[in-house]
Design goal:
mainly beta, four-stranded antiparallel β-sheet, disordered C terminus, 320 residues, SH3 type barrels, Immunoglobulin-like, 1 helix, five-stranded mixed β-sheet
């Protein structure tokens, strides 16, 4: 060929390959555009004596044996039955945490007890501008007379006053650490504690409080049970001690180590405490002989004690 003349073998092979690939490409393009014959359909025979024809395009046709193999049957009821496999579909959903139709009712909380009720902390009291450190005396007996009271502390001023149970007393300013006053007997007429405080009349300066202890005074440990004497003079009284022993006393006698007899009458016997100078009265509460009389307002009959024995045998003992 003229086209291969003057070419080397390698160039000839390349040229022949190029021509062959070009021709093959033209054939494929022509087949794509202009089509071609389909291959003959396949026939299959099933167990139901039906011919199943599968075309090249994937469609199938079923014909009965002897009824013409090329005729297609389009009735779906004549198609080959297939086993249906049912696979249930399960949906995974979260379980309900509670019934949406149930309404929430808050539980009734019991009322807290008194011990559970939280009490607010107490408010701290401010520090007093003045300080009261002590008093002298700090213990006195009730029903005694007026007495001097010494108050010691710090930061006292000439305007400071001593108050006993809220009653202001005349106060003497000695120094910033010492005050003195006189407590009247009326303020200690009964036993108990008395509150002492130092402050100014306008209450701009005040101190802390302290207590004055007022104790009950001792009383005669006797009972007035009778009287001796004439109708005009009642000069002897019969007392009974806690051991039920009888004791005859008269005016001026000292009994119990500290009580002096100051008065004797059919109603009562009066004593004076020689140490505290306090008066005590013992009313008549017993009537002898012949029963008891608990009304001290009624005069007691004369009590005649038994005649003492005569030691020397004569009858010269004095008669009561």
């Amino acid at each position: 060929m003229a086209i291969l003349e003057g070419k080397t073998p390698a160039e000839r092979n390349k040229l022949i390959a190029a021509i062959a690939f070009g021709a093959l490409a033209l054939i494929l393009i022509g087949r794509m555009f202009f089509g071609g014959e389909d291959p003959p359909p396949r026939r299959a025979t099933n167990s139901n004596n039906r011919n199943v024809t599968t075309a090249a395009n994937g469609t199938t046709a079923t014909t009965a044996n002897g009824a013409g193999g090329d005729s297609q049957v389009g009735d779906p009821s004549l198609q080959v039955p297939r086993e249906v496999v049912y696979t249930p579909v399960s949906y995974s959903v979260p379980d309900a945490g509670r019934n949406i139709f149930a309404f929430y009712v808050a539980p009734v909380k019991p009322a807290p007890s008194v011990a559970e009720v939280a009490t607010p902390p107490p408010t701290p009291e401010p520090t007093p501008p003045m300080m009261l450190s002590g008093i002298s005396p700090s213990n006195v007996m009730a029903r005694t007379g007026d007495f001097a009271l010494q108050v010691s502390g710090d930061k006292f001023t000439p305007q400071s006053r001593v108050y006993v149970d809220g009653q202001e007393l005349p106060t003497t300013f000695a120094s910033a650490q010492q005050l003195s006053t006189t407590v009247p007997a009326l303020l200690i007429s009964a036993p108990g504690a008395r509150q002492i405080v130092v402050r100014t009349p306008d209450n701009s300066l005040y101190s802390n409080q302290t207590a004055l202890n007022v104790a009950a005074p001792p009383t005669p440990p006797f009972t007035y049970v009778g009287i001796l004497g004439s109708q005009r003079y009642s000069d002897k009284a019969i007392l009974k001690n806690q051991s039920n022993e009888l004791l005859t006393v008269q005016r001026g006698d000292m009994v119990g180590g500290r009580f002096k007899v100051t008065s004797i009458s059919t109603r009562a016997v009066e004593f004076t405490d020689a140490q505290l100078q306090i008066k005590h009265t013992l009313p008549y509460i017993e009537n002898r002989p012949g029963g008891s009389n608990n009304n001290p307002g009624n005069p007691s009959p004369r009590f005649q004690p038994p005649k003492p024995p005569d030691d020397d045998g004569d009858d010269d003992e004095p008669q009561y």
